[in-house]
Amino acid sequence: MANTNQVASTSTQNIVPVQAAFNTAGACLGLVGPGGVYFSPPLIGDVITGATIDSSVIGGTTPSTGNFTSLSLGGKVIASNVAPAIASGFGTTPTITGTNTFGFKIVVGTGGAANGVITLPAAPTGWVVTGYDTTNSATIFIQQSAYTTTSATIVGYSMTTGLAANFSAGDVLILTASPF
After folding, report:
1. How do beta strands 52-53 and 56-57 pair?
2. pLDDT confidence band for 3 (50 / 70 / 90)
3. What pTM did the predictor assign?
4. 3 state DSSP class of 34
5. DSSP character at residue 84
6. Any bridge partners for residue 95, and if so which?
7. For residue 71, what pLDDT band results from cuts at 50, 70 and 90?
8. Are 22 and 29 in contact (CB under 8 A)?
9. How far apart are CA 107 and CA 97, in angstroms?
10. Hey, which residues does 89 pair with through a beta bridge?
11. Are 101 and 82 in contact (CB under 8 A)?
12. What mean pLDDT is predicted for residues 51-76?
């Protein structure tokens, strides 16, 4: 049989030597390919157990932490770390404190006001804002009366009459906003 050197006519999978790096406890730290390059093979449908990312257990039974600029579900934002702002109302020189839409505080400014508009980051359709007047919770309740994709209007109502009622200067409103 004669030896010939011909080009392969079929496509084959390259198989290269791979080494694994382990720590002193025997845990695999990663895979090392040709040239000493660390790599991770594609994981599709694999189950990962006993793994960590930045010291947070994956699939653990105790709560862990996450740091996100926004939180999405099905491609739709469900929370944002963009702080809400006061667009109008809530008395003269009201203040808003908070770093995200999960929870924030408005202190009603001088003169009081029956309503105010909050500016929020862009949502797919609009915002649902709920909250409480913690200063006058026995006499005033909060209702949302309007929304856009970037704002929500909040109104104070009397517990006894059900009619619009002013928040008092200094009232502390604790709110949360959820996009929809």
Report:
1. antiparallel
2. low
3. 0.61
4. helix
5. P
6. 107
7. low
8. yes
9. 8
10. 116
11. yes
12. 60
Q: Do 18 and 28 meet the contact criterion of CB atoms below 8 Å apart?
A: no
Per-residue model confidence as pLDDT tens digits over 130-152: 999 999 999 999 999 999 999 99
Contact 180, 123 (CB under 8 A): yes
- Classify the C-alpha dihedral 158-104-126-153 as positive or negative: positive
- Give CA separation, 112 vs 7, 84, 95, 136, in Å: 85, 20, 12, 13
Burial level of 84, CB count in 10 A (0-12/13-18/19+)? buried
Q: Which of 73, 61, 95, 81 is nearest to 169 (CA)?
A: 95
Nearest to 179 by CA among 68, 77, 73: 77
Q: How many residues does the chain have?
A: 180
**Statement: residue 173 has pLDDT above 70:** yes
Of 21-35, 95-109, 131-145, which range is least confident?
A: 21-35
Please give the structure tokens belonging to residue 130: 């709920």
Q: What is the CA radius of gyration of the chain?
A: 28
